[in-house]
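Recall the central idea of this unit: under ordinary conditions, the amino acid sequence of a chain determines the structure it adopts. In this exercise we apply that idea directly, starting from the sequence alone.
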Amino acid sequence: MRIPRIYHPETLVSHCETELSEDAANHVGRVLRMIRGQSLELFDGSNQVFPATIVHADKKRVTVQLADAVSDDRESPLSLHLGQVMSRGEKMEFTIQKSIELGVNQITPLLSERCGVKLDAERLEKKRQQWQKIAIAACEQSGRNRVPEIRPVMSLSDWCAEPETGLKLNLHPRASQSINTLPLPVSRVRLLIGPEGGLSSDEIEMAAGQGFTDILLGPRVLRTETAALTVITALQVRFGDLG
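Accordingly, the structure predicted from this sequence is:
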């Protein structure tokens, strides 16, 4: 049986007892129904893991005893920042979950002319918090020990204008370049993925003016969630740690 992995947002210290957060305790005590003496693996974002043994567990509170920390770097050498124009419903959640499994380091949800999501600031922040929880769960499942940040929602133009020292890419169905023609080496990428209806011509021109290079995936038009994951996978194969 696989040992459950649990994210602990506060710094962990070897050979100490630690009480899990309310969400983690609920998952361990109520969902997994784990009991005293069973094993867990905790991580706090420091790129270390902490083998742990449950010393107390009930439906509201779980306390564990930590063993020695073990360094466990599973991060890709390619730093990927995904700018994803928000999609409706579960599509955005799916994109966030899978892109983090594939190694994305940071995600910024974006608003564009053809974005189909219309929410006020309060509801957008609630969405962001929900997406951050999805990011944590994706790390627990995939073995990553650093949790990517889901940044606050911002406009496409503001995101494109942010300073960036790496390669800036925009997926475009009529681009002349592909990922295979990009020059080596590449260690940082800011990747723009548009909405279900695509970016407008003005937005494509604006992104180009901010230094984004248009790239082509192939002859088929992909849905926004398929496009993001396909590009991320291709970039990790060429510049990262997938092979």
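The first helix runs from residue 22 to 31.
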